[in-house]
Write the structure tokens for this entry.
Amino acid sequence: MALKEGRIGRLLAVDQDATSLAAVDGYRTSISEVIETNPSTVRAILAGKTDLGRFDLIYAAGLYDYLDARVAARLTRALFEHLDPGGRLLIPNFLWGVPEEAYMEVFMDWYLLYRTRDEIEKFAEEIPPTTVRRMTYSEDGTGVIGYLEVERV
């Protein structure tokens, strides 16, 4: 609704999967012309080879569950650097104890890196503390996904 009502200036979807980006591209004509896509990888972002621009909000959905902890910390710092003052970085990660874990792995061939609250909060360890206004942790209503939110000064 916010896109259709013109309350969002730019929405950038970044993924290495061309099929996913093509689906997002389809929304440009039906929902909003401010939707953009960028075919990139975590490696390219970490190497500074992808010009993402500046943002008020970066939401890294469906990504950190696959990243090594060191790469996750480096990526968190890199994404945080793309925030405007007052901007927020929101990172979800599945928590240990997902009731459907066996089903996800056996029938869906979907293997994730489950983490604890402490492990998720460590994603922000490479961000200089003087640049952080606020860092909060929360969980979804079912306790299956942990969210780290880091707000830039």
Remarks:
- The first helix runs from residue 18 to 30.
- Residues 62-152 form a domain with the Rossmann fold fold (CATH 3.40.50.150).
- The chain has five helices and six strands.
- The mean pLDDT is 96.
